[in-house]
Amino acid sequence: MTLEAIAVTKEFPGGVRAVENVTVRLRPGQIVGLVGESGSGKTTLARMLALFHAPTRGEIRLNGEPVRKAREYHRHVQLIFQDPFSSLNSLRTVGYTVGRALRIHRGLRGRKEVEAAAIELLQQVNLSADFLTKLPHELSGGQRQRVVIARALAVGSSVLLADEPISMLDVSIRLDILNLLADLRDRQGLAILYITHDIASARYLCDEISVMYGGQIIESGPADEVIRNPRHPYTQLLIDCAPDPSRTIQDLEVEYGEPPSLTNAPPGCRFQPRCPHATSICAQQAPPRAHLGNGQWADCWLYA
Ligand SMILES: Nc1ncnc2c1ncn2[C@@H]1O[C@H](COP(=O)(O)OP(=O)(O)OP(=O)(O)O)[C@@H](O)[C@H]1O
Ligand SMILES: [Mg+2]
């Protein structure tokens, strides 16, 4: 299934424009990374893609069709949260949780049949059959995230929206979860949105990277191109900060001032007040989109 957001804007009460005129496309067998600092609108975009927020403007399309029925839709598209504990029922065993999805969405009936299918799904996320009888509090964070992913597979989803799926996990098991997502892409052709602050993990996992700033995607392209040859000054700063763990995206605020107001967005480029390359036009007019070859583009006056 191909999932698209076409020119979506989300305005919250009070005039907060958390996402403005964003287009993204998730294709089968592809992982798109959505990178950006806190408050840039990543979760809001994911929630629109998951139909938890209605776009103020624009449209969500599944296989080219505007989406209307939420019930049918959530069979295909599942959101995976940062905290897997919050999305599991703490009183239910792993076997019950995965089995229930198989009964409802795959129409499986007999106890034996459901159990066999549940074991197979657990194997796909590298958990043994022993986990069937376990409760969420008996699992590690990484194991819980695997169960959440197994449940999405049980539902039969072909699109996963993973909102910082590893950021609450121990560093030692983060890579395992990333490898699992890569595996599901490669072997089952899932379309995956991977939301992260961590540009290094996006490079490792993603086919494409889109960079968000102040509610807009300001650069996008093949992951290697965006990392090796970032063209938007914000992406360049993000990557400059990345190799040094003592510097974070938040440090940019100290050096380059506050992130933009989402209520009173200034005219021109949102990054202009923090941009080392800004010229007078940047404050006056929104930057044009520059197509830079190989599918890479950036919204920046530098390339006009
Ligand atoms: N329900 C809401 N009502 C009003 N404002 C909201 C709501 N949800 C989010 N916002 C605002 O929208 C902006 C974008 O928030 P969002 O959660 O999408 O950012 P994010 O990129 O996911 O940040 P983080 O990296 O911290 O998770 C923020 O300024 C936030 O305060
Ligand atoms: Mg978020």
UniProtKB/TrEMBL annotation:
Residues 3-239 form the ABC transporter domain. InterPro entries: AAA+_ATPase, ABC_transp_ATP-bind, ABC_transporter-like_ATP-bd, ABC_transporter-like_CS, Oligopep_ABC_C, P-loop_NTPase. Keywords: ATP-binding, Nucleotide-binding, Transport. GO terms for molecular function: ATP binding. Pfam families: ABC_tran (PF00005), oligo_HPY (PF08352). CDD domains: ABC_NikE_OppD_transporters. NCBIfam families: oligo_HPY. PANTHER family: ABC TRANSPORTER, ATP-BINDING PROTEIN (PTHR43776:SF8), TRANSPORT ATP-BINDING PROTEIN (PTHR43776). This is ABC transporter ATP-binding protein.
